[in-house]
Design a protein that fits this description.
131 residues, 0% strand, mainly alpha
């Protein structure tokens, strides 16, 4: 039993450390990320049909993310300005799709929006932005 006690302490400490390092999922962030991934990566290969088909969904997911409550472990104030840019950019892309903008223009705007998305993700990952 004495030999098992140190092993048990190490196991409990390791489990507690892993649990403390994991943040809750931010559903709206994950939802937006799914649409971004499924539209941006095809666009990199010259396939703009996914963004043309999902631009309204992207706009809606961006707005839902901006209006959501951040789960514990995230500091929404740190990303508030960037989320506004994300919504604005998503709205602009949706408008361009409706206006039948060229592939090059859509690709350029989607790439810029992807950069904003990654800025938000970086802010979410920094320790100084966690609650």
């Amino acid at each position: 039993m004495k030999k098992m006690l140190p092993l048990l302490i190490v196991a409990i400490t390791t489990f507690a450390t892993v649990q403390a390092q994991q943040k809750a999922a931010w559903k709206e962030m994950d939802d937006f990320h799914e649409v971004m991934a499924k539209t941006f990566h095809p666009a990199e290969e010259g396939k703009l049909e996914p963004i043309r088909n999902r631009s309204q969904e992207m706009q809606d997911k961006a707005a839902a993310w901006e209006n959501s409550n951040a789960p514990e472990g995230y500091d929404k104030k740190a990303v508030k300005k960037s989320l506004k840019q994300l919504v604005k950019g998503s709205r602009e892309i949706n408008k361009l799709v409706k206006e039948k903008a060229t592939d090059n223009i859509l690709k350029e705007k989607l790439s810029a929006l992807h950069d904003v998305f990654h800025q938000i993700m970086e802010k979410c990952e920094k320790e100084d932005h966690h609650k």
